[in-house]
Amino acid sequence: MRLVLDTAVMVAAIRSATGASRRLLEIALSDQSALTLLITVPLLIEYEAVMTRPEHLRAARGSVNDIERLLDAVAAAAQTVDPAFLWRPGLRDADDDMVLEAAVNGRANAIVTFNIRDFEQAARRFGVDTLRPAEALKRVRGAV
User: Fold this and answer.
1) What is the pLDDT of residues 79-91, one digit of tens each?
2) What is the DSSP string of the chain?
3) Model-level pTM?
Protein backbone atom coordinates (compact mmCIF):
# COMPACT_ATOMS: atom_id res chain seq x y z
CA MET A 1 0.00 0.00 0.00
CA ARG A 2 1.35 3.41 -0.99
CA LEU A 3 0.67 6.10 1.60
CA VAL A 4 1.47 9.73 2.30
CA LEU A 5 1.35 10.68 5.97
CA ASP A 6 0.08 14.12 6.82
CA THR A 7 2.37 16.07 9.16
CA ALA A 8 -0.08 15.75 12.07
CA VAL A 9 0.12 11.96 11.73
CA MET A 10 3.92 12.12 11.95
CA VAL A 11 3.60 14.27 15.06
CA ALA A 12 1.14 11.80 16.59
CA ALA A 13 3.61 9.00 15.84
CA ILE A 14 6.29 10.61 18.02
CA ARG A 15 3.92 11.74 20.75
CA SER A 16 2.24 8.37 21.42
CA ALA A 17 4.05 5.05 21.48
CA THR A 18 0.80 3.07 21.32
CA GLY A 19 -1.24 4.79 18.62
CA ALA A 20 -2.05 3.79 15.06
CA SER A 21 0.16 6.59 13.72
CA ARG A 22 3.21 5.13 15.48
CA ARG A 23 2.40 1.63 14.30
CA LEU A 24 2.06 2.78 10.67
CA LEU A 25 5.44 4.48 10.88
CA GLU A 26 7.02 1.39 12.44
CA ILE A 27 5.63 -0.82 9.68
CA ALA A 28 6.85 1.59 7.01
CA LEU A 29 10.34 1.55 8.48
CA SER A 30 10.53 -2.21 8.98
CA ASP A 31 8.31 -3.92 6.39
CA GLN A 32 8.43 -2.08 3.11
CA SER A 33 6.61 -4.91 1.36
CA ALA A 34 3.45 -4.04 3.31
CA LEU A 35 3.68 -0.27 3.17
CA THR A 36 5.52 2.24 1.04
CA LEU A 37 5.72 5.77 2.39
CA LEU A 38 5.83 8.49 -0.22
CA ILE A 39 7.63 11.75 0.50
CA THR A 40 8.84 14.85 -1.28
CA VAL A 41 11.72 17.01 -0.13
CA PRO A 42 9.38 19.89 0.83
CA LEU A 43 7.19 17.49 2.82
CA LEU A 44 10.20 16.07 4.66
CA ILE A 45 11.29 19.62 5.53
CA GLU A 46 7.77 20.33 6.80
CA TYR A 47 7.88 17.21 8.97
CA GLU A 48 11.14 18.38 10.51
CA ALA A 49 9.96 21.95 11.10
CA VAL A 50 6.83 20.81 12.91
CA MET A 51 8.17 17.75 14.71
CA THR A 52 11.04 19.71 16.26
CA ARG A 53 8.77 22.31 17.84
CA PRO A 54 9.44 22.44 21.59
CA GLU A 55 5.94 21.30 22.57
CA HIS A 56 6.22 18.18 20.42
CA LEU A 57 9.72 17.37 21.63
CA ARG A 58 8.56 17.65 25.26
CA ALA A 59 5.54 15.42 24.65
CA ALA A 60 7.70 12.90 22.80
CA ARG A 61 10.43 13.10 25.45
CA GLY A 62 12.88 13.47 22.60
CA SER A 63 15.46 15.80 21.18
CA VAL A 64 16.06 17.47 17.85
CA ASN A 65 18.74 14.83 17.23
CA ASP A 66 16.17 12.06 17.84
CA ILE A 67 13.83 13.60 15.26
CA GLU A 68 16.65 14.06 12.76
CA ARG A 69 17.62 10.38 13.12
CA LEU A 70 14.00 9.32 12.69
CA LEU A 71 13.58 11.46 9.59
CA ASP A 72 16.84 10.11 8.19
CA ALA A 73 15.34 6.63 8.57
CA VAL A 74 12.11 7.81 6.93
CA ALA A 75 14.08 9.31 4.03
CA ALA A 76 16.00 6.06 3.59
CA ALA A 77 12.91 3.85 3.69
CA ALA A 78 10.44 6.02 1.80
CA GLN A 79 10.07 6.48 -1.91
CA THR A 80 10.98 10.03 -2.82
CA VAL A 81 8.50 11.56 -5.24
CA ASP A 82 9.44 14.24 -7.73
CA PRO A 83 6.46 16.61 -7.75
CA ALA A 84 6.42 17.00 -11.54
CA PHE A 85 2.98 18.59 -11.38
CA LEU A 86 1.97 21.09 -8.71
CA TRP A 87 -1.71 21.22 -7.89
CA ARG A 88 -1.88 24.63 -6.26
CA PRO A 89 -3.94 25.96 -4.84
CA GLY A 90 -5.96 22.85 -4.23
CA LEU A 91 -6.62 23.12 -0.52
CA ARG A 92 -7.14 25.87 2.02
CA ASP A 93 -3.76 25.28 3.66
CA ALA A 94 -0.66 25.47 1.43
CA ASP A 95 1.05 22.88 3.66
CA ASP A 96 -1.79 20.48 2.83
CA ASP A 97 -1.11 21.06 -0.86
CA MET A 98 2.35 19.50 -0.32
CA VAL A 99 0.71 16.34 1.00
CA LEU A 100 -1.74 16.20 -1.89
CA GLU A 101 1.05 16.75 -4.43
CA ALA A 102 3.10 13.92 -2.95
CA ALA A 103 0.08 11.62 -3.12
CA VAL A 104 -0.92 12.51 -6.68
CA ASN A 105 2.59 12.48 -8.14
CA GLY A 106 3.49 9.30 -6.23
CA ARG A 107 0.31 7.46 -7.21
CA ALA A 108 -0.62 6.93 -3.57
CA ASN A 109 -3.46 4.70 -2.53
CA ALA A 110 -4.27 7.08 0.30
CA ILE A 111 -3.41 10.13 2.33
CA VAL A 112 -3.37 9.34 6.04
CA THR A 113 -4.67 12.31 7.98
CA PHE A 114 -6.80 13.42 10.89
CA ASN A 115 -8.08 16.19 8.60
CA ILE A 116 -10.38 14.18 6.33
CA ARG A 117 -12.74 17.09 5.69
CA ASP A 118 -10.09 19.31 4.09
CA PHE A 119 -8.48 16.58 1.98
CA GLU A 120 -11.33 14.33 0.93
CA GLN A 121 -12.84 16.19 -2.02
CA ALA A 122 -9.52 17.18 -3.63
CA ALA A 123 -7.98 13.75 -3.10
CA ARG A 124 -11.02 11.99 -4.53
CA ARG A 125 -10.61 13.97 -7.79
CA PHE A 126 -7.29 12.18 -8.25
CA GLY A 127 -8.46 8.75 -7.12
CA VAL A 128 -6.69 8.96 -3.76
CA ASP A 129 -8.44 7.83 -0.58
CA THR A 130 -8.26 9.78 2.66
CA LEU A 131 -7.93 7.63 5.76
CA ARG A 132 -7.52 8.19 9.47
CA PRO A 133 -4.49 6.38 10.92
CA ALA A 134 -6.52 3.56 12.51
CA GLU A 135 -8.34 2.85 9.24
CA ALA A 136 -5.06 2.91 7.27
CA LEU A 137 -3.51 0.50 9.78
CA LYS A 138 -6.42 -1.92 9.32
CA ARG A 139 -5.98 -1.82 5.55
CA VAL A 140 -2.24 -2.34 5.77
CA ARG A 141 -2.67 -5.28 8.13
CA GLY A 142 -5.32 -6.72 5.82
CA ALA A 143 -2.96 -6.49 2.85
CA VAL A 144 -0.19 -8.46 4.57
Assistant:
1) 999 877 655 555 5
2) -EEEE-HHHHHHHHH-SSSHHHHHHHHHHH-TTT-EEEE-HHHHHHHHHHHTSHHHHHHHT--HHHHHHHHHHHHHHSEE----S---S-SSSHHHHHHHHHHHHTT-SEEE-S-HHHHHHHHHHTT-EEE-HHHHHHHHHHH-
3) 0.90
